[in-house]
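REQUEST FORM: STRUCTURE PREDICTION
Request ID: SP-0412
Submitted by: Lab K.M.
Chain count: 1
Length (residues): 343
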Amino acid sequence: MIETFILYNAILLLSVLFAYYAEHSKTRRSRILARYSLFMVLFVPSVLRYDIGTDYASYVDSFNFSSEYKQTEIVFYALILFLRNLQLPAHSLFVCSAFITYFPLLFLQRKNYTWKILMYVLLCYLLSYSAIRNMISLSLVILAFDLFFRGKLSVLFHASSFVFLPFFFVNRMHCNRIILLLISSFLLCICYTDMFFVLLNNDLFLNSYYGGYMFSVYGVEPSYNTGYGAFSKILFAAIVFLSVLFSKTKDNAVIYFSLFYFISLVLMTKVSIFLRLADAAAITLVFALPLCLSVWREKKIIALKYLMVLFYVVLFEMFIYANNRGLKEGNVGVSPYQTIFCE
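STATUS: Completed
RESULT:
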């Protein structure tokens, strides 16, 4: 188990190191080399893993029995058929998926690149070992938003990516801060009352992609992610939302995005299925944290920066420890790490 902690923490430290070098190096060649090195740090451990991630076996089955697995997203299904037609083994699916997941991160804007990669590794990297389709989509969403915020202008691998489409359209929709605070308070009250379940009891939601989960084991109140850790996540999400709300950003989508993340964390404590939504919405911090830093620096409360980073590092360590493949409930199965050479 100690080897697993060493490996994942080495990935975290090396990722931050190469991201910092890619952001601050003065020569273009060294910045490109740093980004390539960062990609290899993320890519190699992912492609060498064996039976790591709760969904590992189901992806192997979907590859070996693709003709019986057509209910998956069409682009991912097409990828499976492409690899099978090349007569490649099932593990090639994990190689291709890892490449598609981490490659978009190389094209993020240079500004605040270190913070973006730090938060991605802390929040999403280990999840990418299990929720493969979801994490492919989220990487593409991160790149899409990064390009969008730069005034430039990807995401058919998983249905969850469509949740983020409205944020592209509300980016220039300004809302009074006081009104937005009142709206967020109102939403919070709904989430903590039975009114929330009344609103969900409609055909629009029940016939949606996630509606079917409400009648499964995911439609019950969770027995995990409801303690001090969940409360701390919600508290920090509220701080991030308020900091971004009172920042000078012109990208209003980040404000709405932060509110969405805050509400999804609250919902996570009510119904298990919303844990997936909260995991997806966590990419908010990739864009919101740099804005928070500017606000905290101006208000001379920079200690919040170190406190927040420390908090998510602790969560990262706890995630490694808690998500053991030998356990069942609430488990992503990322430890202990083993390679294909141990097969």
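NOTES: The first helix runs from residue 2 to 24.
Reviewed by: T.R.
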